[in-house]
Design a protein that fits this description.
The protein is built from 8 helices and 3 strands, in the order ααααββααβαα. The protein has 164 residues and is mainly alpha-helical. InterPro entries: DciA-like (IPR007922).
Length: 164
């Protein structure tokens, strides 16, 4: 008797059918809410997205937290268009939008430090600075280092005039 390597086609089910049985409506709302938070600026626009964030769906009502009363009012006024956009994107029926004032949390990557580009010090300026420090410290390497530092400072920040 031969052993079947693959099950019969009749026993195979589509992944969608299997997931529909497992995913509860509240889990589906949670998944949509997470995706909604990621795409919030596409729903309300970049300006309002900086001051607001969806936090939950309660009985078909989207709850949005806003950083100021003005932003909360703006989100409330946009309620119908927000609900329509959510229906277009995810097929989720939203009855209304309720906003409240609170802290808007953003998961943003840490800012990168601005890297300074290397500066080429003109030979004439470097020689001028070397002459200014020559014989004042007593160590040639320290005098050269101070001359380079002084020239770099002058290039980056400009020459400062001494006041009498």
């Amino acid at each position: 008797m031969a052993i079947r390597r693959f099950p019969r086609k009749s026993s195979l089910r589509r992944a969608k059918n299997v997931l529909e049985g497992v995913v509860t409506p509240s889990l589906k709302e949670g998944i949509i809410l997470a995706d909604m938070a990621l795409r919030w600026k596409d729903i309300v626009g970049y300006k309002i997205a900086n001051y607001s964030m969806p936090v939950s769906i309660e009985s078909g009502v989207l709850v949005v937290v806003a950083s100021s009363p003005g932003a909360a009012h703006h989100v409330s006024m946009m309620g119908a268009s927000i609900a329509q956009r959510i229906k277009e994107l995810w097929g989720l029926e939203i009855k209304g939008v309720r906003s409240r004032v609170g802290k808007v949390r953003r998961n943003q990557p840490p800012r990168q430090k601005r890297k300074l580009l290397p500066v080429e010090i003109p030979k004439k300026l470097l020689e001028e600075k070397k002459k200014a420090f020559e014989g004042k410290i007593g160590r040639k390497d320290a005098e050269e280092a101070l001359a380079r530092l002084s020239a770099l400072y002058e290039i980056r920040f400009g020459r400062r005039e001494k006041k009498d």
